[in-house]
Amino acid sequence: MSILLISGEVSGDIYAATLANYLKKLNSNLFLAGIGGKKLKESVDEFVFESAYSHGIGLESLTKKGQFKKELLRHIKICLETYDIKKVVIIDFQHYNFDIANVVKLFNVEIDTFITPNFWMWRSVSKAKKVLRYSRHIYTIFQKEYDFYSSLANNVYYFGHPLTDSVFIDKFKPKHSKPVDRIKKITFFPGSRMQEIKLYIDPILDTIAKLKAKNPNYKFRISISAMHYYDFIKNKLLSYQLSEDLLVFESSEYLYADSDIVVAAAGTTTLEAILSNTLIVVLAALPPLSFLYAKLFLGSHFKFVSLPNFISDQLIVPELVQSEINSDNIMREISFLNKNKKSILNSYDLVRNNIAKSKNVFENVSKSVLSNEIS
């Protein structure tokens, strides 16, 4: 049997690679093709196209998105024509699911969806039904997501969040006891796309410059998700008279364990901070036109924007949104966390309990993907 795994985010690339490894364990005769990033490339028999770092977000990137989509769909078509693919699994690929499904359906190939678009957050029933129509199975990763989709169909499953799988959960346990009374190590995660980095890097560097002048005992780091962002951020550092020694290319689990606080772009990394019991300030911004659209058409559905707050429906971690993202506000939230560390960390259990269901998420998804497999 041949399966094509398609992922579009950095976190999705990690999940796709892990799923590939589990699928191979269950059926060593599988042929796996992959569209994603470097992690998936290491885990499949044929890597088709790099997608994890190539596409943008927002209305302002329409031209680049159009070029990317054209190449993405062209490579999917070539793969389906070349390798006699029997099943496609779409993993965390916001904004492109419908286009991918339209191409795949031309070849009469089954589709499973692992991690759906955010239609459940927007409560968009019409778009959710479109996902349901082309998906044989849907594997959700949040209870709210499952409740939404399962109210519309009976082919929806929820095994827990991938980060709570046994393959990940031990990585995010704190490796040492962090000091309660002071914050010294602060790590910044500006995002996994160039568009995100451009939105956050100036407020981040301004914060570092001001805190460095205020307290020379602070230790700062900026996590780089991919080395092709290095030169851009290094040049930005020069304009703030900051050293490129701040830039690190380490695993997120190491940085969480070795940090007293992280300041991070909204996304999966916020849950990783929760699981590692690390204080976090969340930054959430969109390009201006995209934010205006979201505010006009989706604003009523979003009391909170960061995942820990959204899924628990209360303010667990401080979040700064759009114009709120500046050095003064970031420093204010860091000070707030420093003064309220114990109570904030105690509230993390609400999030952990919300996303933890099974320690065998990938095994369960893999078994379901392979159920009634076509030989």
Shape: globular
Strand elements, count: 13
Radius of gyration: 21 Å
| Number of alpha- plus pi-helical segments | 17
What is the strand content? Answer: 15-25%
The main β sheet shows up as:
7 strands, parallel
Provide structural commentary.
There is one protein chain. The protein is globular, with a radius of gyration of 21 Å. It has helices at 10-26, 38-41, 62-83, 97-105, 119-122, 125-134, 143-150, 166-169, 194-214, 230-239, 252-257, 268-275, 288-297, 307-312, 327-339, 341-355, 361-370, and strands spanning 2-7, 31-36, 46-50, 87-91, 110-114, 137-140, 156-158, 185-189, 219-223, 247-248, 261-265, 279-284, 319-321. The relative contact order is 0.13. Helix 1 packs across helix 17, helix 3 runs parallel beside helix 4 (97-105) and helix 9 packs across helix 15 (327-339). The protein has 375 residues and is α/β, with parallel strands linked by helices. Strands 3-2-1-4-5-6-7 form a seven-stranded parallel β-sheet, with helices on both faces. The chain has 17 helices and 13 strands. Helices cover 47% and strands 16% of the residues.
Name some characteristics of this structure.
single chain, 375 residues, alpha/beta, six-stranded parallel sheet, 13 strands
Secondary-structure topology with pairs:
Blueprint: E1 2-7, H1 10-26, E2 31-36, H2 38-41, E3 46-50, H3 62-83, E4 87-91, H4 97-105, E5 110-114, H5 119-122, H6 125-134, E6 137-140, H7 143-150, E7 156-158, H8 166-169, E8 185-189, H9 194-214, E9 219-223, H10 230-239, E10 247-248, H11 252-257, E11 261-265, H12 268-275, E12 279-284, H13 288-297, H14 307-312, E13 319-321, H15 327-339, H16 341-355, H17 361-370
Parallel strand pairs: 1-2, 1-4, 2-3, 4-5, 5-6, 6-7, 8-9, 8-11, 9-10, 11-12, 12-13
Helix pairs in contact: 1-17, 3-4, 9-15
